[in-house]
Design goal:
The structure is a homodimer. Chain A is α/β, with parallel strands linked by helices and about 350 residues long. Chain A folds into three domains: about 5-50, 434 Repressor (Amino-terminal Domain); about 60-160 and about 300-330, Response regulator (Rossmann fold); about 165-300, 3-Layer(aba) Sandwich (Rossmann fold), CATH 3.40.50. Chain A has helices spanning about 5-10, 15-25, 30-45, 50-55, 75-85, 100-115, 130-135, 165-175, 195-210, 230-240, 255-265, 285-290, 300-315, and strands at about 60-65, 90-95, 120-125, 145, 160-165, 185, 215-220, 250, 275-280, 295-300, 325-330, 335. In chain A, the strands form two sheets. In chain A, strands 2-1-3-4-5-11 form a six-stranded parallel β-sheet, with helices on both faces. The structure holds a DNA duplex (16 and 16 nucleotides).
Chain lengths: ~350, ~350
DNA sequence: GTGAAAGCGCTAACAT
DNA sequence: ATGTTAGCGCTTTCAC
């Protein structure tokens, strides 16, 4: 095998304890010996054995990530960002795909803890309500970082999330300023956080702007996190195109819905954005590859991933207490592209 | 901490060695004691400490996966499949995203080996030529499984791949049988394997079917693995729609190109598939969410992922020699949907 | 400020 | 068929 702590110790003419000390840059080691040892370590390319460390319940350099659906581009983007940030800091990730299966998720967590991950990052889909009560009760001996946990204002763990409201308001005000009425909000199934937020916010916006039922509509297209929603949204849009109170502006639940709306509009012979403006939510790959490119409310997946990873790194460095709950919230924002 | 091998040993009234033997279900242990010990293990919920095992250079239950671009839906699908298959078998994965950066990839491999992964699965993009010579030279002490390594007929490692030819031929014959001429092949940049295969195969097909230049065209849209290709393809299609020898059938390099073609066709007022039939390659999310849904050559990502994972599992079980190169190749196939 | 030494939980000779 | 025991490479008291 590779070079061990003993090799370094004898090369430096000190004991393994001293090496260990400089490794865990703790305690008092004379600057001179520290410097000398560090040089030898670098020179010999020594890296401590992960398993020996893990055996002594210490650093393993691994964080566990649980995502609810890895094939969802929204998730993928967050994972990419976490991975990239951690890789720069010599940390590895265990990737676990829960498929929204709570039971499986619990088993994953148990096993990850057994493997002594240094942090547990749980990425929720914004349109899915995780069993947050489970996490509230979770006694992990590593920090738990919840990405997009919106439900509890005071969860027991670290939370990193992106507020939808600011971007949604920007979008609605964009429509309002151009007097693009009626405005239609296209939602997914009721009952999840993301949907509720949008519905409430739209209602507030309408009453605030004095928009009557003739100027505002709400439609639903079923489960919006499922591929079939695109077709549903396209069909809905075709119908709306023929309706007497055809909307001039659409705010779509997510990018998949947005893509469906675009297709429906084009099929109905409507020009986007001239006849109808469309803004969706998520800013995933889909919004960028649609033609025309979708204007969308950016949920800032890359930032979210980076923040989660950096939070772990700060905890690891001791800058932040691991077991205290913290909350970082960033604002979504409107990204204007070709459909509005 | 949890229950250790000593706890089990004393509970069973035997030595730790015996426990270890039943754990590694090797050697001769009397069926009676084995049964008894297994019961106690189950009862106490004992699980061997991963780090102690790793320290003794044995099983770690982890496999390393290196993908060239995790945000690519093609990759994501393979990763999902690998993860799902391994999770059922209590194996975890380290996910590494190389971003097509060779240098980074090498560092990942080095670190993964140090972490004693039980297998290394490298997923190449079908449109990217990996530095296969690097892998040929790689001396890993774990099996290396290359997914979609097409270049070498006799690589030093295990290969699992999907041949594009069968599905492409199906697609072309589909066009031929319906006499949808001219047929246009839309390719990405020259120089990668995937592109070369398609070009060669198309040429062979044309000469085989006696198709002259009036009945067959080849076009290029630049780097087809980049989001912007959608717009390029849309623009190309708009131009083709106005051309005197407008194609009646399109075979698109991948799903992104296919989506672009669809949009271009619709923008030009062409009905799909009545005026123009479109078939793409990949069968990713994109082909399923496009409206109309794209007919596509299925590159069978889910099967590929499962095969790679199962290959590792068979090696782990000793059914297959780890260090011998093997090759499993499956055939792509045409999936007919709404655009053809 | 540094060293000696006792483990961490397991595996694998070597004994019996 | 089962037990004894010496490590794997590191961390961490406890001495000095």
């Amino acid at each position: 095998m590779g070079v061990t702590i003993d090799d370094i110790a004898s090369a430096a003419g000190v004991s393994t304890a001293t090496i260990s000390r400089v490794l865990n840059n703790s305690e008092r080691v004379s600057p001179a010996t520290r410097k000398r040892i560090e040089a030898i370590i670098k020179e010999q390319g020594y890296k401590p054995n992960i398993f020996a460390r893990g055996l002594k319940h210490s650093q393993t350099g691994v964080v566990g990530i649980i995502v609810s659906l890895i094939t969802n581009p929204y998730m993928t983007s967050i994972v990419e960002s976490i991975e990239g940030t951690l890789a720069k800091n010599d940390a590895f990730i265990y990737l676990c795909n829960s498929n929204n299966d709570e039971e499986l998720e619990h088993r994953y967590i148990e096993e990850l803890l057994r493997r002594k991950v240094e942090a547990l990052i749980v990425v929720e889909s914004p349109g899915f309500n995780a069993a947050s009560s489970f996490y509230d009760g979770l006694k992990a001996d590593c920090p738990v970082i919840l990405v997009n946990e919106h439900l509890h204002r005071d969860p027991r763990h670290h939370v990193v999330c992106c507020a939808q409201e600011p971007g949604l308001m920007e979008a609605l005000n964009y429509f309002l300023a151009r007097r693009l009425f009626p405005i239609a909000m296209i939602l997914g199934d009721e009952g999840n956080y993301s949907c509720t937020v949008k519905e409430r916010l739209f209602a507030e916006f309408c009453s605030g702007a004095g928009l009557g039922p003739g100027a505002a509509q709400v439609h639903r297209v079923g489960d919006a996190n499922v591929e079939g929603v695109v077709t549903n949204a396209a069909e809905l849009m075709s119908r709306l195109a023929r309706s007497p109170d055809r909307p001039r502006a659409i705010l779509a639940y997510n990018d998949m819905v947005g893509v469906g709306v675009l297709q429906g509009a084009q099929a109905a012979g409507l020009r986007v954005p001239d006849d109808i403006a469309v803004i969706s939510v998520d800013n995933t790959l889909l919004s960028r590859i649609s033609v025309p490119q979708l204007s969308t409310v950016d949920l800032r997946t890359a930032d979210l991933g980076r923040m989660a990873a950096e939070l772990y790194l700060r905890i690891r460095s001791g800058y932040i207490p691991a077991r205290e709950a913290s909350r970082e919230e960033i604002s979504s924002r409107l990204v204007l592209r070709a459909t509005s």
